[in-house]
Design brief:
It is a single chain. This protein has one domain. Helix content is 42%, strand content 28%. The protein is built from 5 helices and 3 strands. The protein is globular.
Length: 120
């Protein structure tokens, strides 16, 4: 919705990057956490490139590409920084969650996400 409104005032040809914090994405952060834990467990990896690939291939990446494709834009690369875990309670303070409580891990992955975009 924000992107639809932005198109009215902003030339999307100039849109090259997007950034946001993972935790407020709620259910998407839970999905990414589960994928991350399958590969790395509960330790923090320094393989940020691989975590970026997990994000790109997650529902988050799929949904963003679906939205961006309407404007002939897609995700070229996902980078992250400041990877860490937060408590489930902290996530409840900043997110709206639909996932069943029993399916939410005790620790939730958080980081800053930087997305490089490309025009088709």
């Amino acid at each position: 919705m924000i992107l639809r409104k932005s198109v009215e005032d902003f030339d999307l040809d100039n849109l090259q990057y997007m950034s946001f914090e993972l935790l407020p994405t709620g259910d998407l952060a839970i999905e990414v956490t589960n994928q991350y834990m399958k590969e790395f467990g509960t330790k923090i990896t320094n393989n940020y490139k691989r975590v970026g690939q997990i994000l790109l291939n997650s529902q988050l990446g799929v949904d963003l590409n679906k939205i961006l494709n309407r404007y002939f834009i897609s995700i070229e690369q996902v980078s992250i920084e400041k990877l860490h875990f937060v408590t489930r309670d902290k996530m409840f303070n900043v997110s709206i969650i639909k996932t069943d409580f029993g399916q939410i891990p005790d620790k939730i992955l958080n980081c800053f996400v930087y997305i490089k975009l490309k025009k088709h």
